[in-house]
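Reply to dn_fold:

You asked what the input looked like. This is it:
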Amino acid sequence: MKKNLTFYTPILLVLVLIIGLCSIHAIAQPGRRNVVGDIMPSSEELDDGRKSMIINDSEKSNMRGFIHLPTVRLSVANQRQSTQNIQGLTDYVNNFSPLKATMDAPISLDSREIMNYPFIYMVFPSGQVLTKLNAGEKSNMQKYNNSGGFLVIDVHDTQNLKNILGKEVSFRQVPIGHEIYNCFYNFILPDTKSTAQKRESEISLNRPINGIWIKNTLVGLSWAGGQAWSNQYKQEKSLKLGVNIIVYALMRYHKLL
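and this is what came back:
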């Protein structure tokens, strides 16, 4: 028995030393908490090569996470997606939220890699562009939409979009009280102003945003507001709503809703 204890004693001492060093490291970083109450890593420290992560908190300012935002490359000739909108949103997320955003290199819509991203933004200037997408692009859009990804699409032709996304998809306004309106910034709609006094932290929207739904689950937006994310325009209301869209997409992708 004494032999056995003698053999294990150095191992136990090493373990105690490691635990002690970890405790000192935790004490040396006050004011930052993780989900178990010790250290909350910064959003930069969390970014470990994956495409996204979020640690939610009842205090929005304590939220941590990161997201990689790609621009999408289409097979249709002369239909390059502008990087300016994603760059503007990336800059705003980094400057005015606790999250870290990185703009990635363009990826093809028919690439399997697209499934690694919780959020995709695309602009289609006409419904005709949708009809010219190749089979892989159309298939990927439907798979992405059904697998936890959040599509934000600027297009007026919802019928051609529905043909791609599937017959179970519907388009309707996002109602008052939905999480996307208050998951970071707090937005209110016109018909809430008459029933409650607007708080200083609340932001008024002119109208509800248009959602892409599968049954009662919001899986994307048919919305033109992303054009205002560009650093050329910097429309703050649209950028703040963009932050909410990012947070909602992360929470949906990581099954926190």
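Helices lie at 2-27, 43-46, 84-96, 127-131, 135-146, 158-165, 190-193, 236-253.
Hope that clears it up.
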